[in-house]
Amino acid sequence: MYTFTLERPTTLADAVRLAAAGAKPLAGGQTLLASMKLRLSAPEQLADLSAVQELTGIRKEGNALSIGAMSRHMDVATNAEVRAAYPALAALADGIGDRQVRALGTIGGSVANNDPAACYPSAVLASGATIVTDRREIAADDFFQGMFTTALDGGELITKIRFPIPKRAVYEKLRQKASHFPLVGVFIAQYDNGVRVAVTGASNGGVFRHTGLEQALTRSFTADAASKVKIDATDLNSDLHATAAYRANLISVLAQRGVNRMLDH
């Protein structure tokens, strides 16, 4: 490691002031601290957000769930309102990493980091969620802009994420046994105006919506309809874990599996 200063703001106003002055926000630290240990990141000042109560809390607001940015994965997984209103989101949170990661990692940190194989971005994008910051509200379709890249400006902090509650939803993933990240993850959310499908882990560009699956499932919500959608492997990732063709097949298989699960409940 190296020399840096650590601030611990207790109000959102203080956190915003520190971030604007160049301090690196520290949420759950699951990516940032590992990057610092490897000297891939070298911030001179950290702003630990764990004491900012304004960034916590999970509540149902009409037909939406509002989840504070500093809510831990464990909080989302076990919250009674999330489990009742949006069980697929609770299940996703419960399947992230291991117990230690779930106890420390935060939804805001995960979404702001936008790892191309993270689970939460698929739920945010498939839900058509709204990312609320200290400055504005950003639609999910505008937020994710590529690998580790988002619409956030320098010093801008996520305060909460607002999820419209779907009629039904599901998240299916094939987990990499070493990292616990999804080799591919598919989140399907059905709303009155149609179906949204988001895929994570399959592309170096990060999470993306699959319009072919969305259109097919909006017309006919069946596994057979999903199976007939051609999954183009051209822009998918090929690495030591799996080829692009394998990932394309996984998207189809996981989508069909997810639809069957939704129809069974």
UniProtKB/TrEMBL annotation:
Pfam families per the UniProt record, alphabetical: FAD_binding_5
Coiled coil: none
Keyword list, A-Z: FAD, Flavoprotein, Oxidoreductase
Domain FAD-binding PCMH-type: 1-168
Domain of life of the organism encoding this protein: Bacteria
Oxidoreductase recorded as keyword: yes
UniProt-listed InterPro entries: CO_DH_flav_C (IPR005107), CO_DH_flav_C_dom_sf (IPR036683), Diverse_Substr_Oxidored (IPR051312), FAD-bd_PCMH (IPR016166), FAD-bd_PCMH-like_sf (IPR036318), FAD-bd_PCMH_sub1 (IPR016167), FAD-bd_PCMH_sub2 (IPR016169), Mopterin_DH_FAD-bd (IPR002346)
Keyword 4Fe-4S attributed: no
SUPFAM superfamilies: CO dehydrogenase flavoprotein C-terminal domain-like (SSF55447), FAD-binding/transporter-associated domain-like (SSF56176)
PROSITE patterns in UniProt: FAD_PCMH
Protein name: FAD binding domain-containing protein
Naturally occurring in which organism (per UniProt): Caenimonas terrae
